[in-house]
Amino acid sequence: MFHRSYRYVRCIMNEHNFITEEHGDKLPTVRIKKVILKDFKSVGYGEITFNCGRQFIPYNTESDILGIYGQNGSGKTSFIEALAILQELMAGATVPSVYADCVAVGKEFSELEFVFDLQYPDGAIREAAYSFRMSSQKLTAEEIRERYKDAPEDFEIPEGECKVVIFDEKFSLLWEDASKRQPIIDTSSEDSPFKPTTKRKEIAGGGKKTLVSLEVNKQLARSNSRSFIFMTDTLKIFEENDNQSLFFRVLIELRLFARHFLFVIDTKSSGFIRLNFALPIYTRSGRMMFDARRPMVIDNEDLEHLREELSDISSVLTQLVPGLFIGFKEISQTLDKDGEAATVTMLTAYRDGKELPLRDESDGVRKIISVLSLIIAAFNEQSVTVAIDEFDAGIFEYLLGEILQSMEESGKGQFIFTSHNLRPLEVINKRFLYFTTTNPQNRYIRLKNISATNNLRDTYFREIILCEQEEEIYNKTKKFKIIAALKKAGGLR
């Protein structure tokens, strides 16, 4: 389950033998400290400094929350998508092509920078920064053939499909013996895999064979929409040279954070839930997709893990929605496609003594169930970061406030959300909130001159009307123009 010590994942970490048992006892708490977006979708420039970046938060203490508010199309989802791209890159994965349209219209590339705070059990503190540029590139004919090689003959291949290209990656680090953050890896040079040369020799070695291997990795990463710095083959070169290097260890700690402790939930998942196609349940092993409409076959070993997961979810769910429990009904025994023992099951809900298929519950209840294991994780583990777009969709506003208040008062991890519902403005501290503006070059701001006694929800409405902030936060609409447009559209029909 999620709510265990960070050391719980030592068995996972050895997937590439990067982390030793000894190192597993010294893993840091990792928090995102600052994010900067440039020419990313509707964001010309946007910078958000998290609360943990504004004050010292000792190891193993309070939660860090970030709520982003603003009108449609003003950069809320852009921020979540930037985190999704970060998660893929630092995990060593390929950035999906759906993010190729994130480069702002008319710009050659976007620039993203992320700053991390790492706090260790022995009291040591380090600050790491990872930045990169991304562009969009049309797929070649060969790449299109490879992508759609298994498509049916009558499938119409979309035109002008693109992929993400990642380049000019930079990694810098501030540690206890340094006076300021120092560049460790800079891939923007064309005549070298990366600079500074002294750091390259220290991390990877200086042999000709190593230089060739690094250059090959750099080209492969660019063509495969991956990070050169965090790809497995690059890290293996660093490990072979010196697996005790401070720089190597921090890179592995960030990769581990991305693979097992950073979760980004976009609106696509919510769409599955609303349409009742599937119920995604997020676990540290990854996202498990359950058919919400009909029975499905689950391996018996996986069934035991699912039983534990649903038990934990139910223990919290019944406090949020009194009298509601979830589980699964075992219908029959069978064999899976590999010939292993399996069970035909259906997800069910128990309410008022009745057992019903979970598909009959509301969208809001199913969404809470879907993300509840992540909420539990962010509440209990200081190194877990969860980001959810449109967290309020389908959730009763009072319940939304209760969840966020609980996270603020007693949680340990980092919780990021976007919302249209303004209830959280009344219940969580203003230091956890950012607002989008109408200025693409200064997209995210905190409201200024807000006293402790102000109701932030009322203040937000006031700012929309009176525009007393340095930046306008709402592109004003006029009701009579809306009415006229509706009538005109009806006349055209």
Overview of the molecule:
The protein has 493 residues and is α+β, with helices and mostly antiparallel strands. Among the domains are: 256 residues, no CATH class; 84 residues, no CATH class. Helix content is 34%, strand content 26%. The strands form 4 sheets. A 6-stranded antiparallel sheet has the order 2-1-4-5-6-7. The protein has a 6-stranded mixed sheet with strand order 8-15-16-3-17-18, with helices on both faces. It is globular. The termini are far apart. The N terminus is likely disordered.
List keywords for this structure.
493 residues; alpha+beta; 6-stranded antiparallel beta sheet; 6-stranded mixed beta sheet; 15 helices
The 3D shape can be described as globular
Helix content: 25-40%
Profile the largest sheet: 6 strands, antiparallel
Mean pLDDT: 82
How many beta strands in the DSSP annotation? Answer: 18
Number of helices: 15
Spatially, the strands of the biggest sheet line up as 2-1-4-5-6-7
Determine Rg (CA atoms, Å).
24 Å
Unreliable runs, pLDDT <50, ≥5 residues?
1-15
In a nutshell, what does this entry contain?
The chain contains 15 helices and 18 strands. It is of the alpha+beta class and 493 residues long.
